[in-house]
Amino acid sequence: xxxxxxxxxxxxxxxxxxxxxxxKTKKGLVLATEVVLxxxxxxxxxxxxxxxxxxxxxxxxxxxxAAYIVIFVMELxxxxxxxxxxxxxxxxxxxxxxxxxxYLISSLITIGLMVILHFHLHVxxxxxxGVVFSVIASPVYAYDAYTIGLQLRSSRQPTHRTQLFTSV
Length: 168
Hints:
Elements: H1 2-23, H2 26-47, H3 56-73, H4 82-116, H5 125-155, H6 160-167
Helix pairs in contact: 2-3, 2-5, 3-4, 4-5
């Protein structure tokens, strides 16, 4: 009976340590940074009354980044075939490229609105901070896309045709 309780408590401890150990990895640190930056941009945009239309971008970015953290922490990709894992990496690449571009576009439009409509639009510290953190989030997502692209390129296997030619 004591062995059963000891063995049942050990997996719980490893499950609790897994997210912390994953965040210490390079990919985990980048994903955690993306979630934190999206949260900061969300808070800044929510406080600043001028950007209610930009509130949905950090919400979506934070949800998708957190979803990929959960997928990688729980190692859901390893439970399926290599094809599913490949599509999971491609989806992660699309997510990183898309949010990098969207953060850059939203920050440029917001900067333009601040400059053009300065007299009609109340610009305060929260609006400026939201733009600054959006500008910071864009290269973080771009770096994530770059590292995913390198990972996908290195994981490509030679085709069957090239294997036939090299063995002859």
